[in-house]
């Protein structure tokens, strides 16, 4: 038995892209930025009380794909900088370059999401701050 579940909290790097398949299925893609402060630098800054100490962030950029009704909702409400909590599953993508090199990367297939309080987007209120959609996915 295998378990493939991912839960991430992050901000959108840019507005989502939406496309439609020939059969009319909406496909949305966006990138989520996740950051983590370097604890060592945080401790040094606190102990030395220096304003010159800069916190180093470890930033991850994660590609997220959604389909159907979820993709349409995402394209309507998700904007660059918005804070979201996503739930999905990890997918391995493989392809061969024009030079014949095998390449891989991972992405998330979105299953559920939740809007969170957002300093950048606080002037635009959403009706209930949560949107959860369940539908069949092509994968």
UniProtKB/TrEMBL annotation:
It holds the Pfam family SSB. GO terms for biological process: DNA replication. GO terms for cellular component: nucleoid. The keyword DNA-binding applies. InterPro entries: NA-bd_OB-fold (IPR012340), Primosome_PriB/ssb (IPR000424), ssDNA-bd (IPR011344). CDD domains: SSB_OBF. GO terms for molecular function: single-stranded DNA binding. Keywords: DNA-binding. Homotetramer. NCBIfam families: ssb. This is Single-stranded DNA-binding protein.
